[in-house]
Design a protein that fits this description.
Length: about 220
């Protein structure tokens, strides 16, 4: 017997409760994005919190959490503490609404401001020389960063990132220059180098523009 996925479970509830056709339900995406916005408050996210925010039973939210154990970071009470955005320190500091949070990888800092609807102050060290790259990234894109020569690496993988130690995240960093990124990535197949603007433009086209109607539904 096939196991129903968390996404299918949410679509099924949406259909049975709100008569939304399975293929039209945005509830799985709203669950993910609303969870991120709650996490941005700097506290672990419980099933009760996400259930109240989305108007779904806490028991359903808890079942979805249980089915997503391999895709995030959790505390001892079963609350979510990390999913791209994390409360667990990493090299990638991500400050929003005066709270110091972190991201699993450099690439996360590019798209999270758009999903959260918040401006972030980002700082991340070049793994080759240790120098700090500082950025201000708004939901509309990078506003400022130093040094001006900064770039980041992106890792092309078929599997999604499931934590800061995944291949995707272990290979996504900021660098002070293209030369530094090139030296670091020369023996790492699948790694490409992008400017900050190129990375945001790609992410906007592939993700942010696509999910904007869903983000507009969030409270």
């Amino acid at each position: 017997m096939d196991t129903i996925t968390p996404e299918e479970l949410l679509r099924k509830w949406d259909f049975e409760t709100n008569q939304i056709p399975l293929e039209e339900s945005t509830l799985p995406h709203r669950f993910e994005f609303q969870t991120l916005r709650l996490l941005a408050k700097g506290e672990p996210v419980s099933a009760e919190m996400i259930g109240a925010k989305l108007g779904i039973p806490a028991k359903l939210a808890q079942t979805v959490f249980e089915g997503s154990r391999g895709k995030g970071q959790w505390d001892s009470e079963g609350r979510l503490i990390g999913s791209a955005l994390t409360l667990v320190p990493t090299p990638h500091r991500f400050r929003v609404v005066n709270k110091d949070l972190y991201t699993w990888c450099a690439h996360d800092t590019i798209f999270l401001p758009g999903l959260l609807g918040m401006t972030a102050q980002v700082s991340s060290p070049d793994p080759l020389n240790g120098d700090l790259i500082k950025l201000v990234i708004t939901p509309e894109g990078p506003e400022a960063y130093t040094p001006k020569s900064a770039v980041l690496t992106i890792f092309q993988a078929t599997e999604p990132a499931t934590g800061p130690e995944s291949a995707v995240c272990a290979n996504s960093h900021y660098f002070t220059s293209h030369a530094s990124a090139e030296a670091w990535s020369k023996d790492r197949p699948g790694v490409s180098i992008m400017t900050v603007e190129e990375a945001f433009a790609q992410m906007k086209k592939n993700l942010l523009d696509v999910v904007q109607p869903i983000l507009n539904q969030l409270q």
